[in-house]
Sequence to fold (102 residues):
Amino acid sequence: MPEFSTPFSVKHSDRKLTNEELIRAIKYSIAAEYEASQIYEQLAESTDYQNAKIVLQEVSDDEKVHVGCFKKLLDILYPEGKEFEKQGEEEISVLLNQKTSS
Ligand SMILES: [Fe+2]
Fold:
């Protein structure tokens, strides 16, 4: 949840981030975008007020676009992560081929 209790609570760091810290921050940002998208989607599903539904669904979709922006940035900053993802995709493909062909 947001913590904007004072104007200084989100003050920038006194030093620049290391590459590892930036990668962690981008991963966190991806999770935060998914969370925000889900909150807006749940709110849209929880009201009958049509204008609110339209706005909330639009903003939810915008957050999914932001996920893509951060994922692309993460691929640039942390190409090793993409290799892990490919490994997982291959493992699941093999598993599903085994389970569906038997
Ligand atoms: Fe966003």
Summary: The chain has one domain: 19-101. The mean pLDDT is 91. The CA atoms of residues 33 and 65 lie 9 Å apart. Residues 33, 36, 63, 66 surround fe (ii) ion (CB under 6 Å).
